[in-house]
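Fill in residues.
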């Protein structure tokens, strides 16, 4: 029984010119295609992918890839917005961050990446933007009864919705720059006008 194989010159020349890794000429498929060569390429690709996957996994394990930012939001005493130190226990008020005094054990509240370009380098939860947009204050300076923005936008208005004056404060329209809608009761009846209606001198009791 006679079999007829293609005997095109091109097939023979292509197969015969293919080299194996050893530098020897590779086997030739009876039909003129290099099946062994194709499988070898598939195997090489699979091994390369495995090596790449292992390298990525190792990189993650060693922390070489960028890590997700640490969430340092916390609630400081008096329900102030705070910054959580590396010990994951100490919570300092927002305004203690970048005040040039180390309050966390390892000084992480004063590190360059936080303080290098204030307020942009700070996490957003530490910052309150005043209504004039050119000024900012720390988040714990919002609703603390003091006029930190200069225009009282950190104490009054719908944007902040601060609670009424606490028991240590007297509600009035202050005449002094440093207060917005409350004055400390210790200033009542001290002989100096602090409220526009003089209620601090004639109504309020310290
Ligand atoms: Ca500090
Ligand atoms: Ca304030």
């Amino acid at each position: 029984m006679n079999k007829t194989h293609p005997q095109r010159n091109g097939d023979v020349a292509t197969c015969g010119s293919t080299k194996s890794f050893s530098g020897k000429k590779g086997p030739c498929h009876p039909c003129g295609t290099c099946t062994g060569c194709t499988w070898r390429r598939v195997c090489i690709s699979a091994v390369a992918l495995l090596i790449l996957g292992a390298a990525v996994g190792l990189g993650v394990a060693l922390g070489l890839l960028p890590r997700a930012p640490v969430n340092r939001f916390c609630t400081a005493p008096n329900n102030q917005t705070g910054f959580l130190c590396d010990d994951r226990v100490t919570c300092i008020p927002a305004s203690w961050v970048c005040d040039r005094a180390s309050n966390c054990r390892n000084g992480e509240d004063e590190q360059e990446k936080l303080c290098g370009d204030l307020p942009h380098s700070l996490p957003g939860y530490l910052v309150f933007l005043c209504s004039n947009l050119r000024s900012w204050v720390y988040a714990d300076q919002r609703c603390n009864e003091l006029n930190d923005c200069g225009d009282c936008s950190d104490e009054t208005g719908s944007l902040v919705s601060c609670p009424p004056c606490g028991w240590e404060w007297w509600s009035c329209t202050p005449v002094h720059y440093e207060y917005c809608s409350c004055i400390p009761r210790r200033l009542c009846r001290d002989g100096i006008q602090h409220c526009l209606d003089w209620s601090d001198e004639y109504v309020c009791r310290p």
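Confidence is low (pLDDT under 50) at residues 1-26.
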